[in-house]
Amino acid sequence: MAAALTNYRLLYLSNAVSRVGGGFFPVGLAFAVLDLTGSAADLGYTLGAAAVVGLGFLLLGGTAADRWPRVRVLLLTSLTSAVLEIFTAISILTNCVRVWELVALSAASGLTGAFSRPAAQGLIPMVAPADGLQRANAQIRLANSVCVTLGPSLAGLLVAATSPAWAILIDAASFVASIPILLKLSRGIAASASEAPVNAADVPGFIDQIREGWTEFRSRSWLWMVVLQSTFANVGSYAGRLLLMPVAMEQHYGGASTWGFLLSARCLGYVLGGLTGIAWKPRHSVPVCVAYLLGGVLPLVALATRQQLWIVLLAALAAGFCVEQHNLLWDTALQQRLPLRILSRAYAYDQLGSELFTPVGLFFGGAIVGSIGISSALWGCAALIGVPTLIVFSAVMLREVSGLDPGITVVQPEH
Fold first, then answer.
1. Looking at the domain assignment, is residue 413 inside a domain?
2. Summary mean pLDDT of the chain
3. Which of 327, 318, 312 is CA-nearest to residue 269?
4. Which residues cross the membrane (predicted)?
């Protein structure tokens, strides 16, 4: 028990350390591109490179995390990220950087994320206390929310006062600082035999493992139904949050300053959602998790109906709370209900399916607003979230309560 608690603390600490720098990196990269070319198109190519590569390699990353020790995967991605970011920052400081190098750095960030995210997801049930999995997830996500809230603001001040390179260097330093923690965690897991050695002759081929992950994924109706729901809901959520909300705030609520307030309110909701998750565990976690996605509709409806600013901010806070609760309960459900040997691959299929079409909403959203107006576009995004959520909630609740889905049974991870 003591060893498991120590391993969990090490995982928590390594995650927190790396996340501190993670809040600085996007700001540093964005302003490095803008300082170099001043082109919004170049910035779009840079940000898009991370998204495309990240999605494209998720299945490989998930399979690698199920195939090899997950801590080693995290060590390799941390080391790779640190080296690439250090060289890029030096290039920026010496005025030798070119825009294609920044695009390549962004793509590399997406690549390392495709391997590190499934590995980290699979590590949590290996080291968390057996009776405190949701609490462990909530604590880790709470640290992430705090970093997401504070990191970009601090990074903006740093970039304004110095150079984008220093924000990138802080992220590199956070990866370097996490490496000795991960090394200690690796020794702790080996000592506690949380990740048993596997005979290489018994391990299927890489492609066979990808197929096995797909077979396990589609055999659980509760799993693929929620992912299918998220496929539509995320199109509405991403387009609404990243594209339509800023436009609505600019047109009707004063622009950038009020948009900043809305972002802060949403981030505060993340923190409140994490704090709630530490203490509260619903009985029917999957249906409750599905229902929470309805919270994403609230700020869209508030903006579409042009409510007073305080109502819009309150709706944004509620949306942040609901989204954090959804993500927390969903992560916990995957970890409790799936065998550890396939967990990272299932997470990869989950993320790939959930985010597959989000670029579509961002790409066509601007043209749609020009054709039908901002209010109608906001209502359309709300429908993309609300309609599939209500349908899937009804189906999942039926299976949860009646026990119709054999895949709903809680699985104890194989330690």
1. no
2. 85
3. 318
4. 12-31, 43-61, 140-159, 221-239, 259-279, 286-304, 310-330, 351-371, 377-398
CA angle, residues 49, 241, 330, in degrees to nearest 5: 85
Domain at 124, CATH number: 1.20.1250.20
Work out the pLDDT band at 295, boundaries 50, 70, 90: very high
Section 320-335 average pLDDT: 93
pLDDT at 191: 75
Let me know if residue 198 belongs to a domain.
Answer: no
Q: Are residues 21 and 157 in the same domain?
A: yes
Residue 373 domain boundaries:
213-408
d(CA 338, CA 359): 29
Please, which contacts does 30-39 make with residues 24 or more away whose CB atoms are closer than 8 Å? 30/164, 31/159, 31/164, 31/167, 32/92, 32/97, 32/102, 32/164, 32/165, 32/168, 33/99, 33/102, 35/164, 36/97, 36/98, 36/99, 36/102, 37/99
Q: Is residue 206 part of a domain?
A: no
141 and 174 housed in the same domain: yes
User: Are residues 41 and 98 part of one domain?
Assistant: yes
* pLDDT at residue 410 tops 70: no
Supply angle C-alpha 321, 314, 258, rounded to 5: 110
Number of independent structural domains in the chain: 2
AA letter at 207: I
